[in-house]
UniProtKB/TrEMBL annotation:
It comes from Dorea hominis. The keyword Magnesium applies. InterPro entries: Beta-PGM-like, HAD-like_sf, HAD-SF_hydro_IA, HAD_2, HAD_sf, PGP-like_dom2. Its cofactor is Mg(2+). This is HAD family phosphatase. Belongs to the HAD-like hydrolase superfamily. CbbY/CbbZ/Gph/YieH family. SUPFAM superfamilies: HAD-like (SSF56784). Keywords: Carbohydrate metabolism, Magnesium, Metal-binding. The keyword tRNA-binding does not apply.
Length: 222
């Protein structure tokens, strides 16, 4: 029986992957005169800033001074774009959260993004009241695709792992859910790049009424 639903953030609750790639592409060009290739960026989807930092150093020889400075630069760039163009919310997601909350399920965010960015995004979009806990990649030693983020989220909800369902959009997230022994629903967001979650028990393309109906039906039958 499902008692809790754990959501990844980027690509699931907010459509941020195109925004994140654009931010890093502009940052690397402006600060280091590097042309950041999208194929290099793809493995970063669903992982942490430290993973990104290591990957950029490996491929381009760029070494950000430290994570705090790297996050500061990203925050400034992201704020500039969001201020000019608005925040990339996922249409229909609030309806999904509202229905699940009204049905009595505990809800959590478990994302590899920094905690400050999760809190900012959920607050800006008015989604914070739906969640019982927030877990960031900052809070665990081993990020996705390791299970730590989801395991900590379940612990904070005080719900056994086999009573938790994960909603993910990335290959790394799907692997993390499987490693945590949690069933996973794949929100197949085309903006999240070439992802694959072969063990997903349900695939939905978006938070449409049909997608939400399929998710609710699945949860009720589990």
């Amino acid at each position: 029986m499902i008692k809790a639903v754990i959501f990844d953030m980027d690509g699931v609750l907010i459509d941020t992957e195109p925004l994140h790639y654009r931010c890093w592409k502009e940052i690397l060009k402006e600060h280091y005169d590097v042309e950041f290739d999208y194929d290099i960026y793809l493995p970063c989807i669903g992982s942490t800033r430290q993973f990104f930092r290591d990957l950029v150093k490996e491929h381009y020889g760029v070494d950000f001074p430290d994570l705090d400075e790297m996050n500061r630069i990203m925050k400034v760039k992201k704020s500039q774009i969001v201020k000019a163009e608005g925040f990339p919310e996922m249409p229909g997601v609030e309806n999904a959260l509202k229905q699940l909350k009204e049905m009595g399920y505990k809800l959590a965010v478990a994302s590899s993004s920094p905690e400050s960015e999760i809190m900012d995004a959920m607050t800006r979009l008015g989604l914070m009241p739906y969640f019982d806990s927030i877990t960031s990649g900052d809070h665990v030693e081993h990020p996705k695709p390791e299970p730590d983020t989801f395991l900590l989220a379940a612990e904070r909800l005080n719900v056994p792992t086999d009573n938790c369902l994960v909603i993910e959009d990335s290959t790394n997230g799907g692997r993390a859910a499987r490693a945590a022994k949690m069933d996973c629903v794949w929100l197949h967001n085309p903006h999240s790049g070439h992802q694959d979650i072969p063990n997903a028990i349900l695939e939905i393309p978006a938070w449409t009424e049909d997608g939400i109906e399929k998710l609710v039906k699945l949860i009720q039958e589990m």
